[in-house]
Design goal:
The chain has 331 residues and is of the alpha+beta class. Helices cover 52% and strands 11% of the residues.
């Protein structure tokens, strides 16, 4: 990866500074791009180029201020941590390497935050891409440094609508009690319209601001409300999973209890939470899932598979027996 100056008359660039790797300075390379920003040489910006490790081809990802080279270099160094991470949301030269990337998230999140909505559009895009895939528990560590008023402006800005999910989560982390009232008003409008847009983030932020009592509110207004649409229910389950995985303002056990209520009340949808519970090794729901299988309430093969896998993962003999019996049934 390197910063390069455009050479007049085409898609050629002169390497000015290596960001990562061994690109030789002053080398002239060709780089293609479908959407890179065009900019005059005097604008104080250079092109961010990345070379595919397999094909050797260069791609131009757009204009980056030369002053952000050190920041980008530091950001790339945070790939040396032990925590596994999914592929980046912003372009990377080697997708195979990205799939097995590891990230030092505590260090990376500190570098990301100051560049959110940076005046340099590409730096802002990179920072947002990293924020959108950062573990929620790491994002919560930003609370002392976030500017709540700035985050509110981002959430209210229609031009940033594609980034609202992540910024709503930040508002839950940075906001005050009165922000919970605003979120509740937005959720009321969404429920009236049966609109699931941003609902998972709104609910997760609502829990962060309001604490454990909001879980009951979500159960009543989403999970146990038979008038909710499938996307709305999915959003509510995801919001609870965000907090159950972290065990912060709401204990994991409280989320498990909510999921069990959901399983008992909405048996045909019981498979929706089986993977979450299995990941957490939360075997409290074994009796519930045994009953679901016996009732033959779940018709969706994917849901059936998730439930059987959950029961097989448990060491409970009753769970193992129920899973085996269900699998042995003729199609």
């Amino acid at each position: 990866m390197a910063l390069a100056a455009p050479v007049a008359g085409g898609q050629q660039f002169r390497i000015v500074e290596a960001v990562k790797g061994d690109a030789a300075l002053d080398t002239i390379v060709e780089a293609s791009s479908d959407h890179a920003e065009n900019f005059p040489a005097e604008a104080g910006k250079l092109s961010l180029l990345a070379r595919n490790a397999m094909s050797g081809r260069w791609t131009n990802f757009g204009a980056l201020s030369a002053g952000n080279a050190d920041w980008l270099r530091d950001l790339l160094k945070t790939n040396d941590g032990e925590a596994k991470a999914p592929p980046r949301a912003w372009p990377i030269a080697n997708p195979v390497q990205a799939a097995t990337d590891s990230t030092n998230w505590p260090r990376r999140i500190v570098l990301i935050a100051p560049r959110l909505e940076d005046g340099d559009p590409l730096a802002a895009e990179i920072a947002f891409g990293e924020l959108s895939r950062a573990p929620y528990e790491v994002s919560r560590t930003l609370k002392p440094t976030l500017d709540p008023d700035k985050v509110r402006r981002w959430v209210q800005d229609p031009a940033l609508s594609k980034r609202h999910d992540a910024y709503i989560l930040l508002l839950g982390i940075a906001g005050r009690a009165d922000d919970a009232t605003v979120l509740e008003e937005r959720l009321a409008g969404a429920r009236t319209a049966h609109d699931a847009t941003n609902v998972a983030a709104l609910l997760a932020a609502y829990i962060e601001l309001g604490g454990p009592s909001q879980v009951g509110w979500i159960e009543e207004n989403y999970l146990l409300d038979h008038g909710r649409s499938l996307p709305e229910i999915d959003a509510a389950l995801l919001a609870l999973n965000v907090h159950g995985a972290v065990g912060g303002v709401v204990s994991r056990q409280r989320v498990v209890d909510a999921y069990r209520d959901f399983i008992r009340e909405r048996k045909p949808m019981a498979g929706f939470v089986a993977t979450y519970l299995s990941d957490w090794k939360a075997w409290d729901a074994v009796p519930d899932y045994v009953e679901v299988l016996r009732s033959n309430a779940v018709k969706d093969p994917a849901g059936q598979f998730a439930i059987v896998t959950y029961l097989r993962d448990s060491s409970d003999p009753q769970a193992q027996s129920a899973a085996a019996a269900f699998t042995a049934q003729p199609n």
